[in-house]
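Incident review: delayed structure delivery

Summary: a single-chain prediction request sat in the queue longer than the usual turnaround. Root cause was a stuck worker, restarted by the on-call engineer. No data loss occurred. The affected request and its eventual output are reproduced below so the record is complete for anyone auditing the incident later.

Affected input:
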Amino acid sequence: MAEAAAGASLRLDKFLWFARLEKTRALAQRTAEAGHLRIDGRPVDRAHAAVRIGNVLSFPLHGRVRVIRIEALPARRGPPDEARACYADLSPPNENVSQNPPLIDEPARPP
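Output delivered after worker restart:
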């Protein structure tokens, strides 16, 4: 991780890729440009938007809403443990509805 100087920033798409939130830089660019991502509550539709330490990002990813706070700006796409240290996950718990299906009183089907 790079030691960030005061006011240091990084492109949004590079952060998503370096922090391993997206598999490729192209996917990170698409996520940023889709218009569903917010930086500190402000909608962003540019892959080149600057992110800084302390920014809170919220965006849909892999079927759930992710909310993260940037803790450090990575200098490279490193191993997963190094990437996870760059952000704090503030996402709400993933409540999977399929774990507790509703009880339905259906008559049994004849064979």
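Verification: The two ends are 63 Å apart (CA to CA).
Action items: add queue-age alerting; document worker restart procedure.
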